[in-house]
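yo

u said u wanted the structure for the complex thing, so here. seqs first:
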Amino acid sequence: MKSYFSELFTGAWSLIIGLKVTIKAMFRPIVTVQYPREKLEITPNYRGHIDLVKDEESGSHKCITCGSCMRECPSDCIVVDGEKREGVKGKALTVFTLDFTKCSLCGACVEVCPTDALDYSNDYELAGFTREEFHFDILKRLEERA
Amino acid sequence: METFYSILPELIRIVICAACGAIIVFGNALVMGYAERKLAGHIMLRPGPMEVGFHGILQLVVDGLKLMGKQLVVPAQADKPLFMIAPLLAFAPVFVPLLVLPFSEKIQGFDLDVGLLLILAFASLNVLAILIGGWGSNNKYSLFGAFRSVAQNVAYEIPMLISLLAIVFMTNTFSLRDIAAAQSPVWFVVLQPLAFLIYIVAMVAETNRAPFDLPEAESELTAGFHTEYSGMSFSLFVLGEYANMFIVCSIATVFFLGGSSGIPLPYFEYSGAIWFLAKVYALMFFLVWIRWTYPRTRFDQLMNFCWKYLIPFSLVNLLITVVMVKLI
Amino acid sequence: MNVEVLEDERHHRFVLNMGPQHPSTHGVLRVLLELEGEYAMSLLPVLGYGHRCHEKIAEFKPAKSFMPNTARMDYLGALIYNHGYAQLLEKATGVEAPRRAEYIRVITSELNRIQSHLLWYGAYLLDLGAFTPIMYAFDDREEILDILEDITGSRLTYCYYRVGGVCKDIDDKFVTRTRAFIDRLRGRFPMYDELVNGNVILQKRLINVGDLTPQTCYRYGITGPLLRGTGVAYDLRRAEPYSVYPEFDFEVPTETSGDCMASFKVRFREMEQSLRIIEQALDKLPEGPVMAAKVPKKLKIPAGDYNSSVEAPRGELSYYLVADGSDVPYRLKVRTPSFSNLSVVPEMCEGMLLSDVVSAMGSLDLVIPEIDR
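structre next:
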């Protein structure tokens, strides 16, 4: 009999304490961000898809078309190709594409690059209607930025 | 013809009351739908609806339009007549109790001698609607929701009635206006605190609200009895639920919180309705508040609580009341 | 019992497919239930809806390149899965990670563990019908994600550890933010206690539901908080110490009742212990490089078989590698904790109410992609 009542009272008390927590929360400032209206500043260390780094000296990229990134990529999503050109040492870069549908953002390509020609972009608002929209032409993106 | 003219005023009165009832039902759904989402938002540290109108105030209007525009999907294996009739049955009976509620001394549809009985009779039709809807959908989750709802509502009607019966013994009437008027010096919540508490718990269970929302327990039964409903047939269930909340809170106000009594305002016979609505919405706020605080109870525990605590306590309360009434 | 009687008994049972799309199966798990009234008389988890052949993928590419896949198996314990795999390859090839790297691994792994427990906490209460706690838990969890994002560059499926260290050093900002987070979470525990843990409805839903005994756990290979909830203090960080865990002072929380409440409390106390580990690791953080000086570019694994086990948020995670001398594994077997934990469901939940099945399955803290890897 005693436990019958004590259970009732401790139970009711625990419920009242719970109500106290939520009513306090009701008057606390909201913590969410109203996404399309306001945006959080993204950390510069964010690792988005890769981009070619713009070389300050030449105004172009630093890629020497060695193909290390292509070989290192676990998902085979990078294609690099070059051609022999007059006056250029080694091969000149003609194709640099990334199939972002397959990329797992591991960063192996950036780490393996001997000339630090690659870096992560800060793009995170990526949405599209077709797969082809995610086959990025990294070389073209560099030219567009320049 | 003469008889027609003699009943004409009554007919007009019924039409006006029904129209007012419709305004209350839809207005209440708009207010409560918005308030619930806003309050839930702020409890969860988020702002709730913000997009449509100032602070999302028109959100419910837009939602209503969207629901009206949606296709009514009837599952291929469903029992079509039952499936279609259930939302109507959940929605239509809520008008009747509104007719007898005394919003203030003068604002009342009809003052019936059996007002309480009428309300309770029509409020229990809701169970039938849920049962029919759950059965008619021919969905396993809906069926479970329906069965749970019936067991729960039948069980919790008992303590609800007994706790109200104590008040009826004190006032010797079933008329809601007389009961509200009988509380002029002290509200019955002071004289009958136990009955009030029992009524509040039973009221939450009767309206199938969390923590007793077992018929629609979404983590167990996806959406319970309204799993298969879409568009307007779904929104009729929601309208019915909010109207039922309004009705049970109104009963609590009439029986325990003095009806429309309060600090006198000018034209108090009419403006008392402000106090009445304030009390009703304070109780509704409490319902929302507990919904977003507690986890859901389990079915057998819900029943145990009813039979082991609520019914014995309400019986003891009734007994004490009867003895006191006899002695004084 | 005679078979015909059994058939007859089963005849009037109600078959319910819970899942693959169901709010409380947390992903694409299907549970085939046979119900009598609301009592589940038999349960059968049906797997394979999210199978992605991770183990087979490992046999087709250099071992080093498998690292991002480990994070996709258990998206809540990605860093711990990274840790186990990096450790496996380090064992196999003899590369040794510098001490600073090991400390960073411990700090980030423990943050990851807290993050996983916070998500479990919110999702579990959502299963039990409480809507609000998940928002509070996510409020805290978001802080961890922000801290880790600043270092690892991603928020969920990290690929931060490398064979021979970690790919990026931590900075002062990380240290101050982590310390601030430790204080913040410690200040939040009383609130969680008041809102949820002491709540009578929750206690009634958890106590004496889903009872496990140590013997059942041994039979099914159950590890993690469920095993510790039965009173067995088995935590790989203590039982088979790896990395730099022996250098820290922390307890292995245990409860004795073995029901859902026990594992609930164990997880809660584990978060506190993880905070202690992080605090000590930040105090003792050594200086130095974060990457081993010489990691061969082509990681040739000497022929043989290797094993590495770590304590994941849900239990024991083991990698077993068979190498044939090339840089591609011959076979990689991953032993994930949820798979073993799930296998107890038919026995644990037999004869339970439907609501209790939901509560018992939630206490397993299932991550389906880890079961269907």
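Chain A has two domains: 1-31, 50-145. Chain A touches chain B through 16 residues (CB under 8 Å).
cya
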